Amino acid sequence: RWLFNQAVCTLYAFCGVLFGLCSLSSLTVLSTVCCLKVCYPAYGKRWVCYLICAYTPLYPPLLGRLCPRAAYSHYGPEPYGTACCIVWNASSREATLYILALFIFCYLLPCLLILASYSLILWRVRVSRRAVRQH
């Protein structure tokens, strides 16, 4: 069971969500920068700074409210009760939309961007290898 009070649970869950989102966003920026450097070297230098600044989103609106009675999201014990996280089984419409937005914008889109970036890099390397063999 969770051994601490609700304030520590909220802080623990907030930090878990924040660091998870920051980690995935760092991987997304890294893959996109690599793609720009490999596939578009003429534009890579200028766009790297723009990309890092533009993709560093402001996560607090997506992190859930620190208030345990928030309408769209809050933090609480996990189903097993050993740790805390976002309350995923909230029944309100706002909570469902929040979880859906969190899934789409903070997980699905970054993963698709990472997949597209590395696929483009692999395609560019394959085309370059063929060009070198023919030359």
UniProtKB/TrEMBL annotation:
Span of domain G-protein coupled receptors family 1 profile: 1-135
SUPFAM superfamilies hit by this protein: Family A G protein-coupled receptor-like
Transmembrane segment boundaries: 97-123
Keywords in alphabetical order: G-protein coupled receptor, Membrane, Receptor, Transducer, Transmembrane, Transmembrane helix
GO molecular function, one term: G protein-coupled receptor activity
Subcellular location: Membrane
Keyword Iron-sulfur: no
A Pfam family of this chain: 7tm_1
Membrane topology label: Multi-pass membrane protein
Any one GO cellular component localisation term in the record: membrane
InterPro entries (alphabetical): GPCR_opsins, GPCR_Rhodpsn, GPCR_Rhodpsn_7TM
Lineage: superkingdom: Eukaryota
Name of the protein: OPN5 protein
Classification of source organism: Eukaryota, Metazoa, Chordata, Craniata, Vertebrata
